[in-house]
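Record type: monomer structure entry
Structure origin: computed from sequence
Chain ID: A
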Amino acid sequence: MPNCRLLALAALAAGLPAADATSPGVPAAPAPTTCGIGVEWPFSGDDDGDGRVAMRYRPAGGAWRAGMPLFRIPAGTAAGRSWTSRHAGSLFDLAPATTYEIELTLADPDGGGTVRTLSATTRALPAPAAGAVVRPATPASFAGVLAAARAGDIVELAAGTYPGFTLAADGETGRPLVVRAAAGAAAVIDGSIELIGRRHVQLAGLTVNGRIRLNASTAVAITRCTVNARADRGAGDGIVSFLSSRDAYIADNTVLGTTVWSEAALGVSGANLGEGICLTGPGHVIRNNRVRGFRDGISLMEYAEAVDQHDIDIVENEVAQCADDGIEADFAAGNVRVLRNRLTDCFMGISSQPGLGGPLYLVRNALYNVVFEAFKLHNGSHGDVLLHNTVVKQGDALSVFAGAPITRLYSRNNLLLGGPGRTWGGYDTGSGRVMWLEDLVAAGADLDYDGFGSTAAGFTARFAGVTATSLAELRRLTTEAHAQAVDLAVFAAAVAVPAAPMSVSSAADLRPRTGGAAVDRGVAIPGINDGFAGTAPDLGAYEAGAPLPPYGPRDGGVGDAVPPRIGGLGISTITADTALVSWTTDEPADSQVDYGPDAAYGLSSQLSATLTTTHAVTLGGLAAGTVIHLQVRSRDAAGNAATSADTSFRTADLPGLPPAQEVAAAALPWRSAGSLAPGSAAGGGGGGCGTGALGLALAACCLLARRRS
């Protein structure tokens, strides 16, 4: 046998790469929210860029589910900010106040492969303390009652008009200080509310004629309020934190601005005013708000004022008539999740200017009548992730005029339609091209399974330095090997490209038509489109036949009329005659499964009346080697019912076989021809023969030794 040590030293002397193996650091989940967990795993080495991380998760002690694999984020810089190398990714639509076990599997063909586990607990939804003391207040007694309030108290306002106020007291963990309107009372604050530096404070049910400012705060919650912004009270802003805050919960509010939707208002220099909801810092949840009539509807801070903008959820908001950006997720530093929002009549749709490495997730957003760019990937943006968005607009369907590189863009299952354009406010919306990404960096860009269409003549797309003039060319010349050509007939409702963008539009119903060109044309992505109906996910923000998400406030003032939202549907522990069905809901609800040999079902599990957000039902008495169809059902305490789409699985052929791990195949965002999946034999790393230059030499020795054995 040759002297392996001498060969290894010779390899090193020859200058072969010695840092291709991954050296992993310690993974962390730095700031769980009420509905999401972001994971970061720093690393060094892996100079050849082939390290990958698969992720799965479960409620503590529950069934494992596949999550979307982490994205590999190399060290980089943008807009004066820098970041180090890491793998990062998110879990979506989680239950509040729940501990999750997370398993990460690192695979690197050059070595360093390992499995790490961690646990993280989502935050509870904000609520008053159990047994809280209620301190009634009227306009006459309010100042005194507020001055005497302490942690755990509820200051409850009777109907009437109150002056603006600055709160000087804090709550505590589990004992917030609450200021709320009495049930059914119209409590109006005629002025601004200042919550500077406050901790564990909640505002609920108030009407505020002015601004709510929560600079440098911790765990402030603002729910079910109406905020009427005014130019003379806080420069037309709604709910803002211009200094770094943490763990805010801004939900179910109506926030109305003073900006009028007009051509003169368009752009950063237009006649517009105010930020609807604006925050900086980590851990925020901004969900189910109605925001209208601002410069930017929902925004993060920029440049030196942007502080630790990671692990933020912007979910199911209704945003309209914003003269600059509908949602401005600028300077997102990773695991910012912009999920299921509906935007109508905005100059720009969703902004990433820039993303600081990523991932910045833009998922299942519906955008109608975006005047200029649906996605503003400017200022050298890195790591933007576009999944299942629907866009209908005048001009180019998907265009970005950044004048700076767009790096590591990842796109799947989007539905993008444009039409003839023109110039509005000095901005040319384009000629109706289906794609124009002149500044895209081709190396590292991964776009596929998207649907493109235009009511303008022809089919023109620009992908980095490549121009395609047909769908066939787009498929052949770019990564869009499975792109689809679509037109307005994909929608179930009548939808038109906006002919007059500067008139006020109604929110469009952009759900796809059953049997149309968008149906079953996407690709499965674990943790994103689990439980899809049919043979594959549908393109765009919705599955055909599914209900619309509850955009905007979930309680219109007449009690709970919103059904629970079902997510995370998984089927595991499959044997010849049993299977475990699990899912989550965004509020406590009961559990039941309908199942059978086809979509008519015929059988139902016993109803579990326990109200919970994490659901698990074991089906028994199944036939071996049989396809089983099922749907899950959950009903909340108010009687609102939700039903999942039909899904199916196959039982094991013979009793006694090891259980299958998961039904859904993982569509990994980093997988390409010739790559290794996490957990594969070749991808496990560290197979006893070393890594890098030393590993190459030792591997040769090992191979020779094996051939001689």
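Annotation 1: The longest helix spans residues 692-708.
Annotation 2: The helical segments are 4-13, 142-148, 471-477, 692-708.
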